[in-house]
Batch of 2 targets.
Target 1
Amino acid sequence: MTSDPVTGFSAGKPKSAPSNSASALPAPASAHDNEAFHARFSRRVQYLTVILGFAAAIAIGLAKSRPAGYGIALGSLLAWLNFRWLEQGLSSFVRGSASQEGLPKPQVPISTYAKFGGRYALIGLALYGMVTFLAVPALWLIVGLLALGLAVTVEALYEVISGSR
């Protein structure tokens, strides 16, 4: 067998082909298992968002300034709130679509769309109010909003390393 100098892959047939037995494939997860997995994942992401955000707020508050720490704390709380509202909105979409399965044109309540757009409006107003009236630095609010991304990354790494799925 020769290997491609660019990709490093070998050309030719593998020495042993994998078996095609059905026992080599994992069993598909049931809907209940998926819901339980999602509930655990979501709960841990919420905890991690608040814990990591407040840990960063304390560290930056002590190292840099109190307003910077307040900004990170408030930003991480807004990130947590945004995640909760997103999850509630998606849950209502899923429940609505499941209850209308088989209908030619399913109906989605206007309130569901209002929740999706409203959460951005409320977060924008909260950010504006914090920067304008509380004099919290906008940069540190944005850093606090990133706590959700960090929490999801930490949770995903935990899932990969632990092999819980």
Target 2
Amino acid sequence: MVFQPWANARPRRQADSLQLALKIGTRDIKAADDKFRYRIIETPMNTTTMSKETNQTQPTKILYTAKTHTSGGRDGGAARSSDGHLDIKLSTPGTTGTGTNPEQLFAAGWSACFESAMGLAARKMKITLPPAAAIDAEVDLCTNSGGYFLQARLNVSLPGLEPAVAQALVDAADQTCPYSKATRGNIDVAINLV
């Protein structure tokens, strides 16, 4: 039996608190930490994979699926979306290459999503998001003895809003933005109101 983490789980963060017991023959799984559930997946060649899922709410409707094709990786590669709206060259950060890099793409996507989440929060709070609202996102590609990892900062500008109102918008957006949810507990993030 092969143990395989589910795609959206972060076993490097959960491994210490998660204890499993597998009943031989019955394949019943017991987890000491109830944040996760497990499922058995039959795979080719008579092997079985157990995958870890979080117990987050499963989607009732998928609103959009982004599809891209990437070849060549970050060092001279290219990426193109299925609808043709994205067609880019890729380069390694810090090189003279002519393309962008995954960290820039992640920063742009997260900051755009976060600003939309602030707009949603503003509508719910019945306030107007300032037209000059902006986010400067910084995503660091880091390394240590454990390998590569990311850390990030979102520097949010909401000119003209009282600091308490601006902070309430940022806090609400942080709870609803899908990128914020995906990174929470997985990378170091600072969200600064500037």
